[in-house]
Every structure is written in C-alpha cells, then in structure tokens.
Amino acid sequence: MIQTNFSVGQVLWIFLAFLSGLASIIFFLRQNHRISLVFLFSAGLILRLFSAGLDPFLNTWDEQFHALVAKNLLTDPFKPMLIRYPVLDYDFTNWQANHIWLHKQPWFLWQIAFFFKIFGINEWALRLPTAIMMSLFVLVIYRIGKLISNEVVAWYGAFIYTFSFFFVHFVSGAVPTDHNDAAFIFYVSLSIWSYFEYIQSKKRRWLIFLGIFSGISILNKWLVGFLVYSGWIVAIFMNHSRRERLAEFRKMAIPLGLTLAIAVPWQVFISFAYPRESHYEYLFNHQHFFQAVEGHQQNFWYHFYLFGEQYGGLIILFVLLPGLAILIKSIRNEIFKTSMLTYVIVTYLFFTLAATKMPMFCPIVSPFIFLALGAFLQMVVEWLRKHLNGPFTNWIIAILLVYIAYDNLHVNQIDNWHSDKQLNWKMKRNATVMNDYITKKIPSADRVVFNCGRDNAIMLMFRYNNTVYGDYPDYEQYQALKSQGIKMATLCDENLPVFLKNDREVLKIWLRPAKD
Predict the structure, then answer these.
(1) Has residue 430 got a pLDDT over 90?
(2) Residue 391 and residue 463 in one domain
(3) If DSSP codes are grouped into helix, strand and coil, which group holds residue 215?
C-alpha cells in the first residue's frame, strides 16, 4: 500500500503515473506501439515531476553546491562562483567553500540557471531540467532498442526504466552528484543514439548531432564524453575492410571537429581567466583514476554490486546476463553489436580499474542494461503466450507488467526516504524553517552572517543573498571585517565569543532565549 506520509497531491501524482502506465500496457498489448509510447512517456514524466517535488530543501551531496553555483551564474554565466562575495580568506582547492568554482564542467549548471531565470530560484526549478531529461530518456531507450533490436524489446526496456525506483529517486537530488550525472547520462546516450541513427540511415545530419551531443557531454563531466567514438573506432576495425577504414575515419572528422569546437573553448577560457583554479581541477580530475579521492574507495567489484540497487533488486543479478545474451542474439547488424559491446565493456572496465568509485559512473550505458532486461522480459512473455494461449493471456500479462511496475518503483521506500521517517530528511526540513526565521531577523543583504553550520550556510546563500559562514569568526577575522566597515550578524549559542557578544553593532540571532 501507499503510505499515508504522502500528501493527497503526491498520492495523486503516483496514481496518475500508474494509470498512464496501465494505458500504455493496454495499447502495447493491442499492438498500438505509438500510442502506448505516448502514455509510457507520460508515466515517466509524471513520476519524475513527482520526484522533483519530494524534498522542500536542498540535499547535501552535492545538490546544494550545484544549486548555489547555478544561482550565481545568473549574474555572470562565465564566472562560476560558490561564495559570491567571500569576505574571509579561503582555500581555492576546497570546492565546498571557495569562490571560483570549477569543480564540475558548466553545461548542466547553465541549464539550471536557465530554468531559474524562467521559474524563479527554488528547489523545483533546480530539479526540473533533470526531470525533463530523465523523462525524455524513456524515448531514448526505446529508440535505441528499436534501432538495434526490435520494437518489443525496446518497449519492455523503456517500461522497466520508467518505473525504476533508482532513476525516479535520482531526480530528487538525493543521490550524490545528482543533476551533473543526470545531464551526463542523457547527453552521452544522445550521442550514442545519434551514432546508431547514422549507421541505420547513413544521413550525415546524424554525424552533426553526434558531434554536438558528445561535445556537450564533455562540458558536463569531462573526457568520458568521448565514449561514443570508442564504439565507432572498434566497429571500424572489426566490421570494415582495410580499404573502407580510411573513409570511415574521414567521416569521423566531422563530428569530432564539432565535439572539440564545443568542448575546447571553455577549457581555454578558464585556463586564462582562472589559471590556478583550472590547473588544480585538471590535476584533480586526473587523480581520480590513480587514487581514491575524497574517500571514494570501494571494492574492485563495486560497480557490479550496484546492479541490484540501480536496476531493480537482487533478482536482476540472475536476469541480466541471460538478458544480455538474448539482446546480443537479437541484434542483426554487426556494427550495432560491436559498438554496444564496446560501450558496455569500456565503461565498466575503465571505472572498475579507476581507483575512485562512485555510484553514477557506469549508468551512462544504462540504456543497454534496461534493453537487456527488456529482452529477458520479452522471453518470459513469449513463454507465457506459448503455454497459456487462451482468452485471458493478455490479462495475465497485463497483471504481470503492473506488478513489475509497482514492485520496481518501491513506493514505500520513496516514502521512507522522503518523509519524517528519515531523520536526516526531518532535520533538513526543520533547517529550512529555521532559515526562514533567521532571514526575517536580518534587515539587509549586506550583512555577513556567521555560525549557521557548514551545510546550512550553503542553503542560506541559495535562498537569500547574504554571505554566510558555518562557524564564528576568530578575533583577527572579526577585527579585519570591522576595519573594513563590514556589517555582521551571527546565529548565537552558548559558545558565542565575548568579542561578538560585547559588540552592539553585531546583530545577534538567538534560536533560544539568550543566557545572562
């Protein structure tokens, strides 16, 4: 059952999603794939918009940092900033508390800033680009599946993705690296889709799209955005004669040139505009492969252990390999087969060998994982048709698909993670209420606010325009700010320093009655 912690509105979102999913199943079983796909996309969109509204606050890792940088891009799109007006010295290598913020490439931040411009600066607008991209992903999976296999496998793969708990929950911003990885998954998949469309049609416009999407992928999460070319290169050597290879590499020059034209200018710009920050970040990115940065050290098999979590439970571990075998067998075009296997193998091999391991590295090839699951589901349904073959067969299949959708979505788990049942969720929601109280006590945006907690400081700067710090200033910092005429405010507790307590010009905000 759906838990009562959901509001009536949230229950309605879920109900409409399942209603749309049921309509999709009915039209699919009636062989009307086009209308079925419309309803399936609608179900995916409803669920992801529902997820975008789950948390009325910024999530800590890493959503709040992305949100604040995107907000600051509204005033200067070519100057990514975390703390816009730092009044204290800072470590430029600390991406959690610095000024110029180059920790991620900028495309997804520009997208978010664009939506802030249209819908205002709020959590829902922050997540809306991810909700849209992850909804369109339903169509991307379907089209890739139709190109390389058949309509039925394509629909089943897209269906499983639509109701995937992990990829619905992902939109909420509660998964580390959140909107950055969503954009990366989306644009890498679009580049692969464009390549497959080119192989199918031989129309050169798809090479243009390939180059554009690959360039944007790099502007989201660096050099893995070149992934699409790995499958193409391997296919050239595996599926073309020596005489044909040179011609194929010449064709590659068009999209590759576009990719570089999109990705390189930003790298050149930041190298000149922000030399120390950009140099550090390039070295930091390089370190990811050779050492586990920021404590992200995991078991060698980490990305394989994630299959169950990301694609629908432990049963996936027993279904995926047979599904991959069925999918590969269904692919008639050898270039598609070679390219697909290259993308999956290169991705999992590279990130398995890399010392730094994080959960969203490998889902850039998730379309093929979902299509493999779809191929297995097709086999199960065909077995049912063969052995039942009666007037109620479609009803039984429909019931099976509804059960898969409900079981895959984990409605109760969404409720547990995004309600007062989760202590961290409750604390974040209470912090939002506290922040509203704090800002009502601050008369203007020109006051620097202290002692708000590290994470809460970021949230305050996102919601309001003050410069905020997590701790109290020390005496030297206080004196420096006083000498510059900078106004100060502080959240007070029993550790309030004497020099702040005795300064009547410092605005003091007590959440509890002040102690004498």
Answers:
(1) no
(2) no
(3) helix
Is 325 a member of any domain? yes
Q: Find all residues with CB under 8 Å of 149, minimum gap 6, and list them.
A: 327, 330, 331, 371, 375
The pTM score is 0.94
Spatial distance between the Cα atoms of 357 and 342, rounded to a whole number of angstroms: 20
pLDDT at residue 314, rounded to an integer:
57
Residue 246 lies in a domain: yes
487: exposed, middle or buried (C-beta count within 10 Å: 0-12, 13-18, 19+)?
middle
Q: What is the pLDDT of residues 396-406, one digit of tens each?
A: 999 999 999 99
Q: Would you state the structure tokens that stand for residue 145, as one six-digit string?
A: 């599946």
Amino acid at 335: I
Range of the domain at 216: 49-417
Q: What is the DSSP letter of 468?
A: B
Residue 96 has a CB neighbour count (10 Å cut-off) of 16
Strands laid side by side in the 488-492 sheet: 448-450, 488-492, 507-510
pLDDT in tens, 360-406: 999 999 999 999 999 999 999 999 998 888 778 999 999 999 999 99
- What per-residue confidence (pLDDT) applies to 195? 98
319-323 LR contacts (CB < 8 Å, sep 24+) = 319/373, 319/376, 320/369, 320/372, 320/373, 320/376, 322/376, 322/379, 323/372, 323/373, 323/374, 323/375, 323/376
Residues 481 and 370 placed together within one structural domain of the fold: no
Task: Tell me the one-letter amino acid at 286.
Answer: H
